[in-house]
Amino acid sequence: MARAADQEKRRRLIEAAIDHLDRHGVGEFSLRRLAEAIGTSARMLVHYFGTKENLLSQALTASRPDVPALLGTVRDAAGLREAAFALWQDSAEGAQRRNVKLLLETMALATAPGHHYRPFVQEAVTAWVTPLAAAFVRIGFDALLPLE
Q: What is the per-residue pLDDT across 71-116, written as a single tens digit (0 to 9) for each?
């Protein structure tokens, strides 16, 4: 039973981290400030996530739209256009707006040489591009790169 409670606590902490990141940004993110803002301790965050980078990675992953689900049913150009427009609307004006804002801020920070956010951004871009490339192949475009 403790495992379910731990997972629920982890999920709530990630949601709190996403809310905090939305309000304060990624650039100045610290475990101490997050802990103070959400009424816990930095030690508890380390217990659940290990490092600031791991917590940030999990928060960014959890906040990412489910692009594979959105594009997984695309079978023609009209379906791709419709799915892309829905994703854009949700990203620009809807529920995903804050999450895309976090991703874009993290991408900007990761452009600095050797920046520690770079692996998170590479993984996030792959998570968006891979299902998009697969959708293009399903509607008849040649695969130029492996989709693995």
A: 988 999 999 999 989 988 888 888 888 888 888 999 999 998 888 8
Question: Which alpha helices (DSSP H) does 25-76 contain, by range?
Answer: 31-38, 42-49, 52-63, 67-71
Evaluate whether 29 touches 21 at the Cβ level (below 8 Å).
Answer: yes
Distances (CA, A) of 71 to 24, 86, 110, 141: 31, 10, 27, 15
| Distance separating alpha carbons of residues 49 and 32, to the nearest angstrom | 14
Rg (C-alpha) for the chain, rounded Å, is 17
Residue 116 token pair: 């520690």
Q: Are 137 and 147 in contact (CB under 8 A)?
A: yes
Query: Rounded to an integer, what distance in angstroms lies between the CA atom of residue 71 and that of residue 51?
Result: 33
Q: What token pair was written down for 20?
A: 């905090």
